[in-house]
TrEMBL record:
Name by which UniProt lists this protein: Unannotated protein
Pfam families: adh_short_C2
ATP-binding listed as a keyword: no
GO molecular function: oxidoreductase activity
Organism of this sequence: freshwater metagenome
Keyword terms of this UniProt record: Oxidoreductase
Family: Belongs to the short-chain dehydrogenases/reductases (SDR) family.
Gene3D superfamilies: NAD(P)-binding Rossmann-like Domain
Amino acid sequence: MTHSNVATYMANKVAVVTGGSSGIGSAIVNRFVINGAQVISIDLKKPESEIGTVQHFDCDLTNENEVSQVFEEISKLHPQIDVLCANAGIVPAWSRITDTNFGDWKKVIDINVNALFLTISHGAKLLKKASGTVVITGSINSIKGDPNIASYVASKHAALGIIKSAALDLGRDGIRVNGVAPGPIATKALISRIESRLKGGSDSLDDYFAKLASQTALGRIATEDEVINTIEFLACEKSSGITGQLISVDGGA
């Protein structure tokens, strides 16, 4: 699938991206803009870089009143939305489950699960008018566990459950719901967390990523661009027969 083919689909389409101010969310926003979409970014943070055509809304996605209000404001600008990328989320500091503070646990669940529910439940009305599509950013931890991040693993398993159930609930309205499950991607946020974890140890950052790469079928980790390509595919009509699925982008980990 070439970008030009997707651009035909995205032209004059309305795409809403949560967590669109940084990281993968910002990359999604940029790709959709390049491909002709009218993009709305929802995030508590201001965008890392301003894109003239993107409309930004500040919103605490864990607050139902704010979520309801922001979609009401969107509806005044656009009677329908074609794509909803539910990308907002956090990765907590590494901690054994026995050392995890309950407040920290609840924060992860609130942002990664409750905000996802609110985003879809309030966005569905506008999606229904366009028989739109939802693309959820899950994780390889939606299907596997890892030590020291139990809250994150639990939240991303919940995201998979939402994908499966929401696809059944919304399919009768012509709405598709899918997700992408990135493996480790060398984003600024992940590099910062790994550097913090490796501090005082003998392994370098390069050693850490080389070890991750050696555990994959392709002998390398996936790139951010490959994750965005998959999101782009799930957002466009070329995936029209796909719903309720989570696609891993991890180099075959």
